[in-house]
Amino acid sequence: MGLNVYNKKEEISFNFPKILFVGLLVFSLIFTIVLSFKKEVTIVIDNEEKKIVTFMSKTNSILKSSGIKLNNKDKMSVGLNSSLQNGDLITIKRAVDVSFKADGEEKVIFTAEGTVREFFNAEGIEIGELDKVTPSLDTKVYEDMTIQVKRVVKVKQAQNLPVEYITIEQPNDRMVKGEQKLVSQGRIGEKEVVKELTLEDGEIVDQVILKETIMKESVSEVVDVGTLTKMEVPNGETVYYSSIIQVRATAYTADVNSQGVPDDPYLGATAVGTRAKRNPNGMSTIAVDPRVIPLGTKVYVEGYGLAIAEDVGGAIKGNKIDVYVHKYSDTLNWGVRHVNVYILEDIQR
Fold it and tell me: Where are its TM segments located (predicted)?
């Protein structure tokens, strides 16, 4: 019995180094395995970098253990169930509030998209070819920004419109200035107008006429307009004149001159066969150039009175007249004057 005990002790003593070695080997193996699970992961949230040492592999576990919570609109570079390796990078872009205005509505949308264009794509917002987007599609999205869409459409419109008639005024020298008389009634026409309308959010902002077709011609209205001016002459009579002529006025008579020779060799006979006359309160005779003032024309001569063009004279050419007076001395008193001659018109009142 004593021999056997000795042998066992000797055997244990002999095997102890082996056992220790195996234990250390196992521990080393376990430690190596544990170390193989250790990893360093870099997490960047909105450009802020954070390094995490972890033994976990799944993304969601790493985020949870690091106290990082995600919004359902946040964007991450890897999936939540992805397995990460040492040195891997996770980028997270936090969603921000954006005010979106379109179609008469305004609402707040969370988004983590980079540009306005990407925002529209992510939200399924359709933009027409003519729609106006503010700001531009390539603008970067930022918190509390406002994105507005104005819906722009072009439509064609056809409508019948009136064609207004024009009024033609024709002078009437038998009527006083300010008086008008309808000669013929105007008539409104009709046309079809085709327009292209540009609407922004339902409001017309521009219109272009594409075509006009006259359906019914308009008819012009014709109106007589008076040209005469009313005037009261010194004898109290009211007369009407159509024009004024400035003339050089001299005087003549049938009386004899200082040498006893008649001033008028025809002794008062006029070119129209009447006798020359001087009537301060009625019509007197004047000699004219018929090319300027036709014979038979009634006039008012400043400083002389009412007269009728009944005579001519060899020296009376152009804007010149000769007024008839009773005596030779009256011709001297008249002399030579520059006066206005008012061309009178007879009108029924």
Answer: 20-37
Distance of CA 132 to the CA centre of its chain: 20
- How do residues 232-270 score in pLDDT, each as one tens digit? 999 889 999 999 999 999 999 887 565 555 555 455 689
Query: Strands 145-150 and 96-102, how do they pair?
Result: parallel
Q: Are residues 113 and 159 in the same domain?
A: no
With contact defined as beta carbons under 8 Å apart, do 331 and 251 qualify?
yes
169 and 249 belong to one structural domain: no
Segments forming the whole domain that contains residue 82? 39-70+77-93
Question: pTM of the prediction?
Answer: 0.51
CATH number of the domain enclosing 107: 3.10.20
The sign of the torsion formed by the CA atoms of 126, 129, 130, 136 equals positive
Look at residue 88 and tell me if it is in a domain: yes
Are 285 and 310 in contact by the 8 Å Cβ rule? The answer is yes
> Cα-flanking dihedrals φ and ψ of residue 254, to 5°?
-95, -5
The closest of 141, 73, 134, 128 to 101, measured between CA atoms, is 134
At residue 220, φ and ψ (nearest 5 deg) are -70, 145
Same domain, 1 and 62: no
**Within a domain: 285:** yes
